[in-house]
Design brief:
Elements: E1 2-10, E2 13-19, H1 29-36, E3 45-50, E4 57-63, E5 68-69, H2 73-87, E6 91-95, E7 100-105, E8 110-114, E9 138-141, E10 147-150, E11 152-155, E12 159-165, H3 173-181, E13 191-199, E14 202-209, E15 213-215, H4 219-231, E16 238-243, E17 246-252, E18 258-263, E19 268-273
Parallel strand pairs: 2-3, 4-6, 12-13, 14-16
Antiparallel strand pairs: 1-2, 1-19, 3-4, 4-5, 6-7, 7-8, 8-18, 9-10, 11-12, 13-14, 14-15, 16-17, 17-18
């Protein structure tokens, strides 16, 4: 089976995008895992573009382990740029399993996406039991085995936990990430972010994505970090989130909707043989 697809990334967070508006392919979990395998094609997530009566298109997101993801900020921005190149429409609306996402195409490959408002109640994250989502009281250890207790839970289309620390370089996200992701407190697992407040305008982060592992960038993690920073009184409504390869700018508007702005790559057409 030969499949036409596209490869794109947002700050190194990379995707294979398949347009199914003309022909639907029912991918098995094994096929999704194979496409995402970096020994084959390779990506953090697979995105399927489907027809929609309510929006320009519907998006489905799949993690590299084959599991479904309810949202993907960078992936949405990449898909919006792809449709803009197709129809020259600078405002693109997508429906997803979790919400409706609205994107604007700006200059110099910048795309801004409104992902809607966050959810912060314990049963909306969801958690397995009623806890204070501002501070879950979860213990993590730095490289010197010093304890740090905290964790702010936010759902921005998928569940996130954000830990604010003094220096992110002292924490091994590859070790901490899977422990928190699979904690019994999170029945749907969770994304994990270690965040360092550099100044009132900048937060540096490292991210472990559920079902994907360590990623160079994560749009929803940037949004969750901004919300968590606001909840804890570290920031106001605007903040830049720094990843390995660049910055995502986050703005929380008066309706509490989260806007994410950053660059996307050019589009590369690829052929997949399954």
């Amino acid at each position: 089976m030969n499949i036409k697809a596209y490869k794109m990334d947002g700050l190194g967070n990379d995707f294979v995008i398949i347009d199914q508006r003309e022909k639907i392919i029912n991918f098995s979990k094994e096929q999704i895992v194979k496409i995402c395998d970096r020994n084959f094609i390779g990506c953090d997530q697979l995105i399927l573009i489907n027809k929609s009566k309510e929006s320009d298109a519907n998006l489905e997101f799949f993690n590299s382990d084959g599991s479904v993801s309810g949202a993907c900020g960078n992936g949405t921005r990449c898909a919006a740029y792809l449709l803009y190149k197709e129809c020259n429409k600078k405002e693109i609306t997508f429906s997803t399993s979790s919400s409706v996402l609205r994107s604007k195409i700006l200059k110099n490959n910048l795309v801004e996406t409104d992902i809607g408002g966050p959810k912060i109640k314990w049963n909306e994250i969801p958690l397995s039991k009623n806890k204070n989502t501002k501070n879950l009281g979860i213990k993590i250890l730095d490289e010197n085995n010093n304890e740090h207790i905290g964790g702010t839970a936010v759902n921005v289309g998928n569940p996130h936990v954000v830990f604010f620390v003094e220096n992110i370089e002292n924490f091994n996200i590859k070790k901490i990430g899977p422990l928190i992701e699979n904690n019994k407190l999170f029945p749907e697992k969770c994304n994990v972010t270690i965040a360092e407040l550099k100044n009132k305008n900048l937060i540096a982060v490292k991210v472990w994505e559920r079902g994907a592992g360590l990623t160079r960038a994560c749009g929803t993690a940037a949004c969750a970090t901004a919300v968590a920073g606001n909840i804890n009184g570290y920031i106001k409504e605007k903040i830049d989130i720094e990843f390995e390869l660049g910055i995502l700018s986050i703005f929380i508007d008066e309706k509490n909707n989260i806007h994410m702005k950053g660059p996307v790559s050019e589009i590369k057409e690829i052929d997949i043989k399954l």
